[in-house]
Amino acid sequence: xxxxxxxxxxxxxxxxxxxxxxxxxxxxxxxxxxxxxxxxxxxxxxxxxxxxxxxxxxxxxxxxxxxxxxxxxxxxxxxxxxxxxxxxxxxxxxxxxxxxxxxxxxxxxxxxxxxxxxxxxxxxxxxxxxxxxxxxxxxxxxxxxxxxxxxxxxxxxxxxxxxxxxxxxxxxxxxxxxxxxxxxxxxxxxxxxxxxxxxxxxxxxxxxxxxxxxxxxxxxxxxxxxxxxxxxxxxxxxxxxxxxxxxxxxxxxxxxxxxxxxxxxxxxxxxxxxxxxxx
Length: 279
Prior knowledge:
Blueprint: H1 3-26, E1 36-42, E2 47-51, E3 62-66, E4 71-81, E5 85-95, E6 103-107, E7 122-128, E8 131-138, E9 146-151, H2 165-170, E10 174-178, H3 201-213, E11 218-224, H4 226-237, E12 244-250, H5 256-266, H6 271-277
Parallel strand pairs: 9-10, 9-11, 11-12
Antiparallel strand pairs: 1-2, 1-6, 2-5, 3-4, 3-6, 4-5, 7-8, 8-10
Helix pairs in contact: 1-6, 3-4, 5-6
């Protein structure tokens, strides 16, 4: 094979890798990787010992999904740790068999439904262009015309936003925790691809219409990660944006090119692959 042929093969290979990197961003994952080994579970002491990783050594309370998301536990603070393992308190096992589990993963959100918060709530449906999308409505402590619409991030679901309910409820806001297209709960789009906020904002707009129909006169939009990008799109494109009195963003994606390049660098991909995988 000549130099031109070899160059063509290399070029095709790099293009293929770039395409794969880009596809992992826009295609909703079917499952998440269990990236933490479970070394020991003591049901009597209510502790679990995990391999030491950047996630397992973080202080605080977290969700811990295990056995391919067939089980879920709530993990508390670190009891002891060394370079090999970290032992943490097990606050609850919601479902699954942690005794038999071998691997799991951490999640930044902690609760699974509003029931875990001990507050009243309703299961509601938002009428979007693709069909009915499920949502949770959590009323404020007193009657109000102020609403916050919580928009979760990429590859997770509305349960991520439960951690934002308590402070808004105490401040007198009704909370609407929504799903949106392709997140595994709301209807799929025809191409079953994330648009990174460029189309998802339409579902946020539908949630705003729902809130207004139920008496909202002031709306705060809160977005988490890709939900932040979606909120910003809704703020600039929704005909109902005049009622938005505030925006709260948690780790928002405000520049996808910078974000994708950072992720590629973290995976030690060569520059030519990084450039090919960014829009």
